[in-house]
Write a structure and sequence with these properties.
103 residues, flat, single chain, mainly alpha
Length: 103
C-alpha cells in the first residue's frame, strides 16, 4: 500500500516538473514517433516492403498457447483504444498533414 502511495506521489512530481519545464514525457514522445512512422508506412506504395510487412497475416496454426501476435495486431489494438479502425488509419495516413493521430 505504501509503495502505491509513493509511486502516485512520484508521478505527480513528474507531472509538476513537466509543466514547469514545458517538456513532454518520454512516453508521449515515443508514441508520437511511432504513429508518425505508421503514417509514413501506410502512405508507401502497395509493394513497398514495410507496407507488405505491416499488412502480412500469418497462415496456418501455431502451437497451443502461442497466439499469432503480429505488429499489425498490436497497432490495431492501440488504435482501438484511441477509437480508430485499420481503415480509418489508412484514410488518415493519406490525408495526413503533420499530425497523424498524435495524442
Amino acid at each position: 500500500m505504501a509503495a502505491q502511495a509513493e509511486e502516485a506521489a512520484h508521478k505527480e512530481d513528474q507531472r509538476t516538473i513537466f509543466k514547469i519545464t514545458q517538456q513532454e514525457s518520454i512516453e508521449n514522445i515515443i508514441v508520437q514517433k511511432i504513429w508518425r512512422w505508421i503514417g509514413h508506412v501506410l502512405r508507401k506504395g502497395q509493394n513497398a516492403i514495410p507496407r507488405v510487412a505491416v499488412q502480412w497475416k500469418p497462415e496456418g496454426r501455431r502451437k497451443r498457447g502461442c497466439p499469432k501476435i503480429t505488429w499489425r495486431r498490436t497497432v490495431e489494438a492501440e488504435a482501438t483504444t484511441m477509437g480508430q479502425s485499420w481503415g480509418t488509419l489508412r484514410t488518415l495516413a493519406c490525408d495526413h498533414g503533420e499530425n497523424f493521430l498524435l495524442p
